[in-house]
């Protein structure tokens, strides 16, 4: 074979600098492209055997090797796949690979950063020039009598091709790394990139530093080590779900996510029709305060494409961890295309449905476990409900709520107990410690409260009310005075009105709040007083606070707090009898009662707290003097 010099069929002269620069952001993908080409070459070879075209005589040892030579500054990708003849190099490398690259440039040159293609699939062999100044190919085809080929290109549009020296079947791509690619001459970097993109590729991938000193034992003998593949050629998700053990699922999780906390449970996705999708989604242990993103890795036929692609995986599911392999997804296209792609939506819906099915099955068959997991998965589910109406529809009947007794009930079960009430009130606490007085009073009257302490719960409550318009969520310190009234006590309306007016005057004065309302009731509770604030008013106030916190205009809503005094309580009776008096006790008592009621309702200001403690001490001093 005589030396052949030619010109690549590329029309724009300076295509290489463009692609180098354009792809700067993730130029590590050349590793994925070259290794997956090597794997493809092995698959093709095996397929030929399967078709009876060749006899591999029981050969089993297929691999892709990456050789690192820091001195020569080369990276070599070696495979024992089917190799190429001279004709094939001409066709696949000189024509197809480069025209593919040219198409690629045409398509994406004018697109901005925000429209990055997802996987850069289709770039292929050409991506070697992202980091190399010179690329060489040494290849020997499997075909009888094939002549080895040596091909070389210096990154321009010229190449040379001649008979080579390769004596074993397969292909060797040698990259002479230029300045842009120097980081890939570090073994550590190289290893992490291979692990990122190639962990599940179907043939063993080895990395070898050719100048690395062999390890020796203490007598100076070289330790011979079996080379270890960097990848798992049979990732668990490819197996049938009924062939996998719990231990295997856990191990796969540990290996893939380097997370040594056990996942709670998982879903094995395995779909052949109408599209092909396999994968495993894990529900990790969440910490209730921190909603950090999980990690869902997307693969295309065992080749890693990207993490957390929102167009394919519903956003709320990104809190999970998992791998999804979908060979049918058109991943060589832009994200904005995927967003509008019906197929990507179908995949996304399928995943959502599977997650909802799994949760429903857990609820039905393992309610005890489901309740145990709730602490971890509850806010994930709530987030999903707020984000995705379809998910809500699938999951609404299995939403559970923790009660102050640490039991779990569904909304329906909770409301069931209030059959006789026309208004369906759901009482909840946002702070079990501070609101303990109210919780106890309601409990004494046979009313259970739900614990809704997550910052997201306010939005969640509003959402549920919108969906079930007969249901009203009420915080334990809201409209509860009526519920706690002792209806057996005879009231004297006229007398009560007068007393209430004078007490209101007194409390307005000591609290300094002109708008304070005072209500006088016979309560079935052992406290002298409580502060209540209507649910609507409190929600409005909280909304305004949020607006203000986010720097929006300052609109404060007047608070409509009501001090409910319990006429049955001896301290209140004392105040009623002495309301007009100026005495030491009447100076201390109402203030103390007011502060105690306030304390359960919200945090006192530092000044109020100081005054409260001083006054409490004063009262104690009186008792011993
Ligand atoms: P793609 O892999 O998407 O087809 P590439 O540009 O990566 O595009 O490669 C072009 C062609 O070159 C491949 O289809 C294949 O026929 C051939 N080729 C590339 N690498 C190898 C290899 N390691 N062994 C055999 N053939 C190869």
From TrEMBL:
Principal place of residence: cytoplasm
Keyword Chaperone recorded: yes
Region feature A, mapped onto this chain: 1-335
InterPro entries in the record: HATPase_C_sf, HSP90_C, Hsp90_fam, Hsp90_N, Ribosomal_Su5_D2-typ_SF
Keywords (A to Z) from UniProt: ATP-binding, Chaperone, Cytoplasm, Nucleotide-binding, Stress response
Region span, C: 547-625
Binding site for ATP: 33, 37, 79, 84, 99-100, 171, 335
Coiled coil: none
Gene Ontology CC annotation, any one: cytoplasm
GO terms for MF: ATP binding; ATP hydrolysis activity; ATP-dependent protein folding chaperone; unfolded protein binding
Gene3D superfamilies: 3.30.230.80, 3.40.50.11260, Heat shock protein 90, C-terminal domain, Histidine kinase-like ATPase, C-terminal domain
Subcellular locations according to the entry: Cytoplasm
Highest taxon, organism lineage: Bacteria
Family assignment from sequence similarity: Belongs to the heat shock protein 90 family.
Assembly, per entry: Homodimer.
Matching HAMAP family: HSP90
PANTHER family xref list: HEAT SHOCK PROTEIN 90 FAMILY MEMBER
Function comment: Molecular chaperone. Has ATPase activity.
Protein's UniProt name: Chaperone protein HtpG
